[in-house]
Amino acid sequence: MYSEAGSTTMSHNLHGTFISQKVNKIRWKPERLEESHFFVTGSVDNEDQKIVLWDFIDNKDDDDIYPFAVAEVPYCGDVSELKFLNPDYFASSSSSGSAHLMKVAYAETGEAHIEVCTTWKDIHYFENGESSPCTALAFHENDLVTVGEDGRINFFTAQSKDVARSIDNADSCSIQCVIFLKHDEILTSNLRGQMKIWDTRSESNKPANTLMLSGDQVTPTYLTFHPTQRHIIIAGDELGALTTWDLRQQTFPVNAHEGAITEIQFHPDNPDHLFSCSTTGELWHWSTKTRYTLGFASEETNVWLAPENVKSKMEVLTLMPTLGKPINSLDVSKKKVICGCGNEAIYLVNGIAL
């Protein structure tokens, strides 16, 4: 299916930094006119959880440049998601059942720090009143949605301190993932592998459509959409497979990692490149930049939706040696991939080939 080439070609551009905390989420801070150099991390399974702002200033004359912590804020519970809404603001979700809006602000001296702007406290909870972990968060412009182990879906906006709407019994089991398909439509997935499409304009608390990821009850662990063709969904699951899901047609499974897939990210500027990581410590770069046409069809075919003989043309590169601990999160900006791991370290791959 794939060629595992180039596993050592980027070793001289691989920076590893031990930070004494397990990282569950890591995200580049987008910049308006320059390349990203700030990023944030959210911790998990530590005695005290926190969100940390880091800086990585690249120096072409010195390869021994490593990220350093700029600011941090304590956090209530494990960080289950981090998402930048724009270059200044990001949202986070917590295993304590809360969500937050935070800002990367600057003092008069120019030093960066993190401000907590809004807290949506205890928006996920079980029927007995105990807090339920918020498992995932997504946004579209200033609209946000959270899902949790309580089977609840919450809708709110970045400008309001109140939850606009809750669907209390959206699912009978834990909802694992959520993404916006468009401004008035979201997609959720649960522990049983059910994928549900919700129309946010509808007054009904029932999904508009329900589909299965596969014939087996395999749990999706991460969802993302193609940047330019949002009807194409890529799902990673607990068995290590990537499944391409065309909302207009059917699913196309691709066997991939040995362990459960923890995150999948398309390159934000070049959707012919996809990046994935797993619980077995793998960090892969999928290159599908070669386009193919099928038969006499004049329209180009998206490689992710092509037959197996075309999919076999994809190349998969190992960006770093396989770790003995899970890679929990990754993010990509320009030619830099960063990941956070269960071995209390973060890694930066600089100079990926696009």
TrEMBL record:
Subcellular localization, as worded in the UniProt entry: Nucleus
One GO cellular component term noted in the UniProt record for this chain: nuclear pore outer ring
Keyword terms of this UniProt record: Nucleus, Repeat, WD repeat
Record keyword Nucleus present: yes
Recorded superkingdom: Eukaryota
The keyword Repeat belongs to this UniProt entry's keyword annotation: yes
Protein name (record): Nucleoporin Nup43
Species annotation: Dendroctonus ponderosae (Mountain pine beetle)
